[in-house]
Amino acid sequence: MINADKLAESLHYDGTREYTRVDGDVAYLDGKRLGRPAEMPRPQRNVLKVIVAIAVIIGAIILFRMVISPLQASLTVGETVAANIERPASLPTVPPMGELITMDDDSIKALIEEEGYSFYDATSLTDSGNMMLLKLPDDVSVEEAGAMYLRGIGSLSAADATRLLCGSWMLSVDRINTTSMVVRYADFTTGDPQAAIQNALAHEGFDSATVTDSGVDDSQNTYTAGIIGSEEGDEVRYTWRVSALPLDEMYSIRDLPEDACYVGIRVTKA
User: Fold this and answer.
1) What b/e sequence results for 78-97 when a residue is b if at least 16 CB atoms lie within 10 Å of its CB, and e otherwise?
2) pLDDT reading at 212 higher than 90
3) Is the pLDDT of residue 31 over 80?
4) What three-state secondary structure class fits 23?
């Protein structure tokens, strides 16, 4: 038989638990404390306020770094890219390929110099030794362009890439076995590959009546091809091919305009 007094004594821990009544084997706790107001002591409330304030500050910092700052940076990049595309240096100055195909390398360089274009002779960088010229935007120096090309266009930011690509083109000449010339450039204005091709055809003066083929090749390039006949019209002298694809398929650069295209115009001696 359990002694009630001993039970009450055993349940009284250093005065921290107070029992008001013992009924047989059951001891009843003092319930007065349950009637006190459920309110946190002032020192603890002050500590809690500090914790909440710190949490708010940390949350604000995370929000700024993860959301607001990237959004502001994206807007800034977008504005810079748009300004690069619209600047005067980005106006198209693609050479007349039907004229260049009849000229030797020195004559081509002389013509480009006469036009007042700023260009870099990258022939020494080719394995074959065939001529390669890089026409630069009017407001980009040879030193700046050289540094960008050394980094690789694909590794540039959208701001640097549009500054270099808008208003520039690359002319490659191959004189092994036959003569073939191709000029490549970025088109930021026409909006899609087919429109970019039509713009190139109009610029080069290729007659739609001379078109022999068109479509999409195995590399997913949209293209149109044709011929340039002799003055008598009974002999094919040159063939031409204009192709285009979305610029983001050529260079994986974040924030480039989605409707920009990469265009190639090739003329080959038949």
Assistant:
1) eebbeebbebebbeebbbeb
2) yes
3) no
4) strand
